Amino acid sequence: MPLNHFRSIANLSGTASLNFITLILLALLGVFSGFLGGLLGVGGGIIIVPILILVFDLQANQAVGTSLVMIIFTALSATFAYQRQKRLDWKVGIMGASVTVPGAAIGAYATSFFSSEVLTIILGIFLFFIAAFMFRRSYRTGNQKKKTRTQGGSRTGRLVWHRKIIDAYGSVFQYDADMLSGLALLFFGGLASGFFGIGGGLIVVPILMSVVGLPMHLAVATSMLTMIFTSISGVGVHIMLGDVLFEYAAPLVVGIVIGAQLGARTAKRLRSVSLERVFAVVVFVIGIVLIATRL
After folding, report:
1. What is the DSSP string of the chain?
2. Residue among 42, 27, 34, 101 at smallest CA distance from 74
3. CA distances for 225 relative to 41, 48, 75, 76, angstroms
4. Average pLDDT in the 27-46 region?
5. Sign of the torsion formed by the C-alpha atoms of 182, 185, 190 and 192
């Protein structure tokens, strides 16, 4: 079997001592996932977790906990890059974190009630839905016209904030942020983060866009800010459960710090529609493989 052959080459014994090839592979995987995270506003865990299970032979709960460690650094690195671009809505991001943080803690604790096999199958099914969403989002984004001045529709009501942000390139973003409508949904973004070991951006970004009302570029950037606090919350619970393998997380983090910076820089000048569609296909295939290996 190809996967078994790969495992034997990397000498993945599950011990705390990893060989040089394994460390390099983990670092390269970190660069790739960090790049996707910075570019698309996702944590990269949707790629990392399945690979840690399929290739590196980790238990599902260990892959989830370890993935969240590296997502902290993905979010920190990308947030730093987006802050230099002045595309962060700090007020919306901090308010969003107030509900994603408890959601992530609950999601992380919930993994202790499922066996590795069941958790892997649930993850595979979740990937199918994510792939379908990515396709839908890419086609919707592709049909939107680029605007230098982005202005959402006028909203009224409780917890509606009238926002105006001017980024480092002179683009003006004016919109009404409907936080009351978005808070409950953002909680589930945190829940998914802790349970599946993802940053939550695949859920948080569309909520920030469609429900809260942020323009696409600001939604991606602000999602990364929220992800910092969400991932820390989930990691804390997974550490208590003994699910975090720091020997795997360390080389992932090294690659991620580099990849997230590259992704954030690319995002400001590249239309990511085609990449999102390719990403969706990859996620769909990974979901099939995950389920097939556990049935």
Report:
1. -HHHHHHHHHT--SSS---HHHHHHHHHHHHHHHHHHHHHT--SHHHHHHHHHHTS---HHHHHHHHHHHHHHHHHHHHHHHHHHT---HHHHHHHHHHHHHHHHHHHHHGGGS-HHHHHHHHHHHHHHHHHHHHHHHHHHHTSPP-SEEE-----STTEEEEEEE-TTS-EEEEEEEHHHHHHHHHHHHHHHHHHTS-SHHHHHHIIIIII---HHHHHHHHHHHHHHHHHHHHHHHHHTT---HHHHHHHHHHHHHHHHHHHHHHTTS--HHHHHHHHHHHHHHHHHHHHHH-
2. 34
3. 10, 20, 6, 7
4. 78
5. negative
Task: Look at residue 24 in the predicted model and tell me its pLDDT.
Answer: 93
Number of Cβ within a 10 Å radius of residue 31? 19
Task: Please tell me the pTM assigned to this model.
Answer: 0.77
Closest by CA position to 78, among listed 46, 34, 32: 34
Q: Which of 76-90, 230-244, 267-281 has the highest mean pLDDT?
A: 230-244
Q: Assess whether pLDDT exceeds 80 at residue 267.
A: no
Report the C-alpha gap between 94 and 112 in whole angstroms: 28
Q: Would you state the pLDDT for residue 97? A: 94
Distance in angstroms (rounded) separating the CA atoms of residues 187 and 185: 5
Closest among 158, 171, 150 to 213, alpha carbons compared: 150
Count the residues in the chain.
Answer: 295
pLDDT single digits (tens) 118-175: 888 888 888 888 788 777 766 665 555 444 344 545 555 567 889 999 999 898 999 9
pLDDT in tens, 73-102: 878 888 888 899 999 999 999 999 999 999
Asked if 211 and 182 touch (Cβ cutoff 8 Å), the reply is yes
